[in-house]
Model the fold of this input.
Amino acid sequence: MKYFFGLLLWMKVLGASAQETLKSPDGDLELKFSLDNKGVPTYALTFKGKAVLLPGKLGMEIAGDSISLRDGFRITGTQVSSVNDTWTPVWGQSSRIRNQYNELEVALYQEKRDTRILLRFRLFNDGLGFRYEFPKQKNLNYFTVKEELTEFRMTGDHKAFWLPGDYQTEEYKTSTTLLSGILPKLKSGTLKVGENYPLYENKGLVSVQTPLMMKSSDNLYINIHEAALVDYPAMMLELKGQTFSAHLTPDAVGNRAYIQTDFTTPWRTVLVSDDARDILASNTILNLNEPCALESTDWIRPVKYVGVWWEMFVKGSTWAYTNETNTKLGKTDYSKLKPNGTHGATTANVKKYIDFAAKHGFDQVLVEGWNEGWEDWYGLWKEDVFDFVTPYPDFDLNYLRDYAKSKGVRIMMHHETSAAATNYERRLDEAFRFMTANRYNAVKTGYVGYPIPRGEWRSGQWMASHYLRVAKEAAKHHIMVNSHEAVRPTGLCRTYPNWLAQESARGTEFEALADSDPDHTTILPFTRLVGGPMDYTPGIFQTTFDYYDPSNKKRVHTTLVKQLALYVTMYSPLQMAADLVENYERFPDALQFIKDVAVDWDETHILEAEPGDYVTIARKAKGKNEWFVGGITDENGRTAQINLDFLPAGRKFKATIYEDARGAHWETNPMAYGIRTVEVTSKTVLGQILAPGGGVAISIK
Ligand code: NOJ
Ligand code: CA
Done:
């Protein structure tokens, strides 16, 4: 409603002019909006005079409506405005965030359908955001989107870091090819989520998903994603030639989205720079999201945690209590079933993790497999598998709750839903009350399998709304959320800062399930992390798994030191130390870095970055005179140039450097590391050697 009245107030008839230009505050980016001779809205973008996006179409196709919102528009008014302010995130990569942009609002009228829409463009110094706005009006109260007609027309055969546009998952390896290589690679049928994880493969495969990172041959870095995905499906991109077209994830009957006006779509974002570091430093996606919607936030705290988890991947521990199958929710008496002897979430094992957390200063202990239902827990016929409130007989919930309390530690709740979102929503209130009653204030959710409602996809409108409903509901109970297998994030953590992190990409678990490439974590900051923090679960010290079982030739594709560096390079207010506590006890000196590293920051400095090759980041811990530096490289060794000019001038600091030992190598010698301390100042530049697949981690006090 407010947009419609706003429109009436602002309307400025433009006469014949059908072209509008907008510049970013620093003048480097320029947007040109125009209507073509058929009245189709188009937009184009340049950076320092170089084309970034050629004129691409905008519009919306409405189901069952032959006119739709594709052409025949005229401009009825425009409005230009500017914003330059700062805001304070509850947690983040910096304690203040500048929000500076110039905005162009274009009011359009389509005669044949008697419909008004608005297009809103915001140009920041590092990128563009734009969205469609549908004011409430006689001819547009409700509609069904058949397809969004947004185009992104690239200017050349760019190098792209991409994942297939699978409606179900973001857990593929990244492919790095030219744009012209995308369709052949998709058609080759070789893209798999993982050799032991065939669940999602090739279902609903569109060209690519976002965040999509590209680099042009003239060294422009371009990232396409979206911000504020609310009540709408995620955007995939279909490639034809060098043009990407929006392809919204469909629902069970093939529609894309059901809209009631007033409505605004998510923002479509295009980050651009000639310096890769600017992509990592960008706050544009957060800035395009609404401010915090929660009344109080003092209960929200960044979390460093350990957990009964990695042993399920490398040591044969099980989530399930018994080997019996066909257990039924509420109808199976577990105390009568024979325990399988491999159950991980036993009282004694959890107690061991609580002791470790207390001793080493971790906030929480994740316990998976604590609740009934894991014997055969997913599949199309499985709706009522978990009730989220019934512990297995060998998990003494009351005892562990009280024991954790006595040690100043919390247990982290785990709600695997097996993607039965309907079941979860029915039980959510009870599940959250149960958590509060038992001292849990954070939940890791999971959505393995095909969603229920059946036929929905994890990136469709219904599921996107579900994850957000859960985060909002959790906030009412003062619960923090870490969602796994949820659709990739779009900066909603600004509005709902209790939504601390998500998985939504190939995490560390894949090193055990299949593999990941040594360049994986040099790409993720440019792709997945653009939308928000990831629960990547780093910190694997025992990098080879034949240590547990000589026949297990899988391994982590990094050195041990690179695992440390990830705590700095993979920003998240929620960080797991994922390895087994017995492994941490073998390497107490390396563990010290994980104990020390902050999870909330005053400042972030992107020192070096190139997608697919290397990332070096320095951050200042929130409210402390402590800095942490993480540097990582791909399969090639390199010397990182670490300029410490972010330190206060004129003072001396002690830097503890965790480094790959001479001869270290992710494949042949991954666990060789050294630790040394040096005196540094703001004038120091460290030339630090990183092993192939290696890294460096530095703490400065
Ligand atoms: C997949 C999640 O990513 C993983 O962390 C979890 O352990 C399993 N699902 C079981 O819920
Ligand atoms: Ca997962």
